[in-house]
Design brief:
Number of domains: 1
Number of helices: 4
Radius of gyration: 16 Å
C-alpha cells in the first residue's frame, strides 16, 4: 500500500467508507448517510484549515483507508491541539493500514507544530483502542452514555498523545 495525500478525486471513496461506518458501526455517532455535497464542504473545510487528508492506496489506486485531523476546540488556547480520525475500508482491516495511516498523521501533526492529538473512540471499538495504544496514545477521559445509536447508549473514550512539538509555543 502507498500512503499519500487525498484529493477531491477520492471524495466518492471516502464517502463510501464514511457511509458504511454510519450504517453498520458505532465508529461515527451519526445515523444519516452523507452525500457528495457534504463531502465537498468537508474537503473545503480541511483545505481552509490546512488539515491533511491522507489515504492508503492499493496497487490499482483504490482507496483502502484514510486519516485526517481537525480542530479539537475552537478557542485560541487550543491552537496546538487537534482531533483525528482514522478509517479503514472493511475489506482491508487487520493488515496494518490503520497503523501506517496513524503514524503518517502523527508526522504531519509534528510538522505543523501541534502538541496534542486526541481521538474519540467508542468504548466497544477494541481494535481502534489497541491501535492507538500501540503507537503511544493513552486513555485520558471517559464520557458515559455520550451517544445513542442502534437502540442503546454509547460510551465515548478519549485517547491522547502528547507530541514533542512545538519547540517554542506562543499564546494566541
Amino acid at each position: 500500500m502507498k500512503i499519500a495525500d487525498c484529493t477531491l478525486q477520492q471524495a466518492p471513496e471516502i464517502l463510501a467508507i464514511f457511509n458504511h461506518e454510519i450504517a453498520h458501526t458505532t465508529a461515527i455517532y451519526d445515523s444519516k448517510p452523507r452525500n457528495l455535497d457534504w463531502m465537498e464542504a468537508w474537503f473545503e473545510a480541511k483545505r481552509k484549515g490546512n488539515y491533511p487528508i491522507i489515504g492508503a492506496f492499493t496497487e490499482s489506486g483504490s482507496l483502502a483507508g484514510f486519516a485526517t485531523f481537525g480542530p479539537f476546540r475552537s478557542w485560541p488556547g487550543y491552537k496546538y491541539s487537534v482531533e483525528h480520525s482514522v478509517y479503514v475500508d472493511k475489506e482491508y482491516r487487520g493488515k496494518g493500514l490503520g497503523k501506517g495511516l496513524l503514524q503518517t498523521l502523527l508526522q504531519k501533526a509534528r510538522q505543523q507544530d501541534y502538541h496534542m492529538i486526541i481521538g474519540g473512540i467508542d468504548s466497544s471499538n477494541t481494535p481502534s483502542i489497541r491501535l492507538h495504544c500501540s503507537v503511544g496514545f493513552v486513555h485520558c477521559a471517559s464520557i458515559k452514555q455520550a451517544g445513542f445509536k442502534f437502540g442503546h447508549w454509547l460510551d465515548l473514550e478519549f485517547y491522547q498523545l502528547i507530541l514533542d512539538t512545538p519547540s517554542d509555543p506562543k499564546e494566541a
